[in-house]
Design brief:
mainly beta; 49% strand
Length: 194
């Protein structure tokens, strides 16, 4: 199987919906190869390309007829299992909004003063879980969180989003947000955050 790596811990292949996978039979002397992909579709040939359109665990079969010599033998049947996941799509650049802070004109980083509440809001509303790592050892969860930094520093806030709001969870998708915490409340070179 090419295009779907073999899972080292389980006897199946990992695939992504919409990704073409090449199946090649190792039996080269057969007269006929019939592939059942486990999702209601099939194909014939020694080497075939399949693209799964839906996620799930697929149990497929290859049936080989003939031995390429004088007498037809078989059928010989081999099985394979493929775990198909939905693709992880990158979040748009508007993955979050921030209020209670400003933006540094030079770097574009979020800027706030020590002890000032900053509210972070994830724009993705269909996710099943939102985890926030504020870079100073503290964390939060939920689509909307508020954070007050106790000391100055340059922090990287990580927003980790799980799930797509449908039946199958995807992710994680990680968004990094650079944050500068300064001791002053009216810092230079700062404009309102947009």
């Amino acid at each position: 199987v090419a295009g779907a790596p073999h899972d080292p811990n389980f006897d199946f292949y990992d695939a992504i919906a919409g990704q073409p996978i090449t199946f090649t039979a190792s039996e080269t002397n057969a007269n006929q190869w019939i592939w059942d992909f486990g999702d209601g579709t099939s194909a014939s040939g020694k080497s075939v390309v399949k693209t799964y359109s839906s996620p799930g665990m697929m149990m497929g079969h290859l049936t080989v007829y003939g031995d390429g010599v004088q007498t037809l033998v078989g059928p010989l049947i081999g099985s394979f299992t493929i775990s198909v996941a939905v693709p992880i799509l990158p979040l748009p650049s508007t993955a979050y909004t921030v209020s209670g802070a400003s933006r540094d004109r030079g770097t574009g980083n979020v800027v706030a003063g020590v002890g000032s509440p900053i509210t972070f809001t994830a724009s993705e509303i269909k996710a099943s879980q939102y985890l926030w790592f504020f870079g100073d050892g503290t964390t939060g969860s939920g689509q909307v969180v508020t954070k007050e930094y106790a000391q100055t520093g340059d922090w990287t806030v990580k927003l980790v989003i799980y799930g797509d709001g449908a039946a199958t969870a995807v992710g994680p998708v990680v968004v990094e947000i650079p944050v500068d915490i300064r001791s002053c409340l009216r810092c230079p070179r700062v404009v309102p955050f947009r």
